[in-house]
Structures are given as C-alpha cells and as structure tokens.
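Human:
If only I could read backbone structure tokens as easily as an amino acid sequence. I am handing you a single protein, as its sequence and its fold in token form. I hope you can help me see how the letters and the tokens relate. Thank you; the sequence and its tokens follow:
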Amino acid sequence: MAKNYKQLTESIRGRINPENFAIKKAFSDELSTISYSDVLTYIRVAMKGVEPEYTQKSRDAGERVKEHLANELKDVSFKYQGSVMTDTHIKGYSDIDLLTICEKFYQPDTRNFKTILDTPERRAKYNQTYIDKLQREINLPSYTGNALNDLRELRLDSERILSDKYQTRDLTKPKSIKIKNLSLNREVDIVIANWYDDVSSVINDKGDYRGIQVYNKETHSRESADFPFLSIKRINDRSSETNGRLKKMIRFLKNSKANSDHEIDLSSFDINAICYDIKASEYQNLSFYELVPVLYNQMKSICTKQTHSDDVTSVDNKEYIFRNKATKLQNLKLLLAEVEAIFIDFKSTVRV
C-alpha cells in the first residue's frame, strides 16, 4: 500500500516545528518547485533540520544549568554532546546533554601505552614523535586521590544544586540528572564524567580526540569510554565538505524510523555510522532526492553482504556496529523496507 505522504509530511512538520514558526523563504520557495509531488515534498521535509529557534532554546536551557553549576562547583569543566551539537535532531522540543567533567583527575590508557612501548612489533608502527608523546604520558605522576569518590561527590553536589533551582527534576537515573526548564520548555540531562585518553587521544594532542567515562551512581562505577567529541567533529566536518548532505541523510533515516509502524531498534549512534560509512564522493554533488537511492543502496549492501556489515564502524571508529549483532541487522532490514517503499514511489516521479 502506498504511503500517505501528505500525512507523513505533516507528522514531521509537527515534530520539527511544533509551534509552527514561519519557515525560511528559501525553503518555502524550494518546496513550491516540487509541490506537484507528495513524495518529493516528504523527502525534502524529512531531510530538513529543526528550526534554529528551537535549537537555541535547547542550548539556552543547557547554558542556564551550566551557570548554576559553575557558580558552586570547583575543578569541573562542561561540554555538550548529542545530536543537537550536529543539528541532526528531529524534534523541536529536543533535550540537550550537558557533560559535567571532573577535572581533579583523568584516566589514561596507561597499560596500552606501556604495551606499545615494550613490544617491538607494535612500537614500530609509530613514529618517534608519537613514541615521545606516549612516553611523556607514562612518566606523569598517577593520581593519588579516590577517583570514584570524587565522581560520586560531584554527582551529589550537582543534585543538591539543581534541586534548589528546578522544580521539575529526576534524580533517580543512574547515569544522569534530568531537569526541565519550565520557562523554555526544555529538558537537560546532566551527565557526570571524567576525561579518558587512549593512544589516539595522546598522539593527536587530545582535544576532540579525548574520550569520557560516565559515572554510574547506582553501581558506583565508571562506564566504558565514549568519544562523543570526535564523532561530533567528524559529522560536522563531513557535512561541511558535502554542503549539508550527510546531515540530510541522517535526518531522513531518523524520520523514516520515527514514522514507521514498526519498533525499529536503531540508535542515533547506529544511524550516524550507516551514513558516515558512505564515501563522500558518492553523494557530495547530488540533489536532495538523489540521496535516497544512495541510502537505499548503502543499507541494502549492509543487509545482504556480510563483508560490508562486518566492516561498518562507529563514526569515532572505536566499535563495530553490526558485527556479530544479528538482531541489530534485523532492525536495519526493517528500516531498509521503509526506505525501499519511499524509493519505489519516488522512482515513479523522478527518472533515476
């Protein structure tokens, strides 16, 4: 059965522009040129970013939380993570993740540094400049405090501060504190973490290559390292190189998932990886509707060729997305079916 594209388009509009702000004239004019086709209109709207007014409110809510915490906390820094930072969120009322990072210590991957330096075969893969950086890191004195207790104290202090400032809050989540700014109508997730430096971070002079370890209050432990800033940088850089096309594809898949009648268990992390895996040369000069067959071919290849599915890595290149994950691959097939249906309808409108 053909999809009701007018209804689906309105669903997206309600999601990305719930207060019905006036859309920019350039986009309105672009839609008028394809108004003859419901499926083309749907595709274009599904690729559109959230209106900047909504995103700014999310950022403002995060900044107010940061200000409250910074006024009372010491030895901390703040960073944002999540899809708002790449403008690939698809909800006008998107929340934002504020990382509150303990600066009393950081966690280097010292064991791996030593293994590289002590193993001739591995050491030979690095030039002398990189070897020197790893050696300097090993030579630094170890932290003599209690890292877990520092993180727990930071979590509890943050809970206290925010409880005094926000009426609507949730302190029960093990890895984050959730507050709602009622005047801005935005939620903020405050995540306690510490810095984590692996080999890539050290040899690249840290910066966006640094990872984090999130504190889990329930288990009083640290989670495995994540590298959100490298992912944000790579998505933003690749999208700039392709004049926004990468982000259009990511939003299109997210909206296709959201509009599906099926529960599709793929995260933003997964969808980012699927799109980032496509070579920029395959789409950097294409029009918006030509991105649909690019996505279709990419997803079909992953679903039908194990050599491809086994090779897809996260944007930060730290983990495999589908290798030995049959259930996740089945969920990709559900999303592929959604995109295939749109592709078929779209082919009857545009010669591909």
